[in-house]
Fold each of these.
Amino acid sequence: DFLLRVLVRRMVEIDAAMTKMEEDVAPEEAYGAGIAQKNIEQASKPGVLESMAGILDAQMMMLFEFLQRHLSGTVTDAEHQLVSALFGIFESTVLLTHRARCVPFLWFYLVSLRPAWTEAFLSLLLHTAFSPCIAIPKRLISLAYLASFIARAKFLTKNFTLRTAQYVSTLAREHLQVAESHVVAGDRVHPQLLLFLYAVQAFCYMTCFHTAEFAAPEPGDTSGRTALSTLLFEGAADVGAEAFGPVLESPSNPIARINKQVAEQFCHCLSDHNPALVVALKQRLLEFAGQVPTHFSQGDEAGLDIFFPFDPYRLRHSSMFVQPIYRDWNEDDESNADPGEGFAAKAAVAQMPNGRSRASSDGADSDRASDVDFTDARDAVERGFLPSVGPSPAFRPRGSTDMADIMSPLCMPMESAYEDCDDFALPSATVPMDAASSSLLFGLMNSAAYREGREGRVR
C-alpha cells in the first residue's frame, strides 16, 4: 500500500507538471499549484516534456497490466483489500490534484472491471460532493469527476447514468435558493454559489452525452414520458426533487453562468427534443452575453479552473487499455461551432515521440487495433454490465464515507462468509416438545370441534 501510494503520488506530480507546461503557465503559477520547482525548471530544457511523457506512459502501462493481472479474474480477500486501498489513494492523492489528466484513468479502468466497483466509485464522488463538512474546492473537483466519468464511460448502463444525473440535479435544486440569494446580494463568487453552478454544469455536461439515451422511451411504457422529460419537468403534475426544470427557470440565470461551451452544447443537444425550452435558454444566453467571462470561476476566486479529468487519453502505448471502454464525443451531435474543451472527439495535441497523443493515420489505427488484443478484451456485458444492471438500493449521495461501507458486498468472495462459521447450527427450540409440556396443544388437536372442522375441509 505504501509503495503504491508513493508511486501514484510521483506519477501525479509528473502528470500535473506536464499539463502546466502544455498550457504555458508561468512558473510562479505552477509553484502555487504545488508543482515541484525542479520539474518546472527542467521542463524548459528541449526534449524534457517528451521524456516525461514517455516515463509516465511506461508507468501507466505497468499499472494497467498490474490491475488486469490481479483484478480481472476471481475476486478474493486480497483483491478486495487492493481495491479498497486504491480507492483510498484516489481520495487522498488523485482527487486533490485537479490538473492530473492521465493518472485518473487507472481508476477509470479499474471500475470498468466490476459494476460493484463502479457503484463504489460513484458513491465516493457523490458523498464528497454532497458533504458540507468537506472543503468546497474538493467538492467542486468531485462534481467535475462525476460529470466527466458519466459522460465518457462507455460501459455504464442507463440505470447508472440516469441515477447519477438525478442526484446531481438534486444537489443543484438543494442549493438553488441559497444561490439565488447570493446573486441578488451581488456576491458572485461565494463558495455556495460556485458549488451550485458546478452542479448545474455537471448535469448539463453529462446530459449532452446521454440526451438520446435519456430521450428513448422505456420498453413497455405507453405513457409517452421519457427519462429526459421527467428530468426537465415536462408535463408532470408534481415537481420531483430531481427535476432540473426549476433550475433552468431560475431568475439567477445559471445556464448563462456556467462554461459557455457546455451551455451551448446543452442547448444544441436538446433542440430536437424540447425546442421551446431551447429557445428560452438561448434567449437567456443572449441577454447575459458579455456580462461574465467564459469560465464562471477563475483561479483567484474558486481555487481552480474548469476542467474535465477524463478528456481523451493522450499517452501512446497505455491508451490500448482505455480505448475499448471510452466514449468519444459524437461528431454528428456537435454544432458548427468549435466544440471546445470537454467535447473533443480525439486528443487534440499531436503525439510526441515518446508518449503523447499520436496523429491519426492508417498505420496508427492498425497498431492500436492490434494493441487491444493484449488487453482484457471482454466487452461490458461479459464484465457484468448487462443493460438491466444498475446501482444497488444502497446507492445514495449521503451516508458513510468509509470505504468498507461504500464497497458493495458483491466485491467480496462469497465463500469467505462461511470460513469463520464452520460450527454453524440452528438454534434450539425455545418451547419443549415433550408430551407433558404440549398437553394443551395435543388436547386442542384431539377436541371434537377441531376434528369436525378438519373433516369438513376434507369433504
Amino acid sequence: HHFISVGGWDAPHPDPAVPLEAWWAALTSWDESAERAGLRGGFDGLDWDLEGNDDRSSPRSRFSAAGLRLVGQLMPTAAANAGSA
C-alpha cells in the first residue's frame, strides 16, 4: 500500500485558511499524477503525521481547532471518493 504522508516532525501543519475544496483538489491531482506515473491504483490513503516542533515556541508545536476541523472534514471526503481517482 502507498499513502500520502502529511506532516512530520518540524513540518508545517495543513493550513486551514486554504478551503477544503482546494485541499481535496490538490490531493486528488497528486494521486492521479502518481497513477499516470505508474503507481497502479494511485495512493491508498492519507497518513496524518502531524507532530510538534523542536522549538516549543514555534506555531508548529500547537494544533489549531481550525486545522483539526480541516483534517476531520477531509477524511469523510476521502472516504466518499475512495477509488474514484
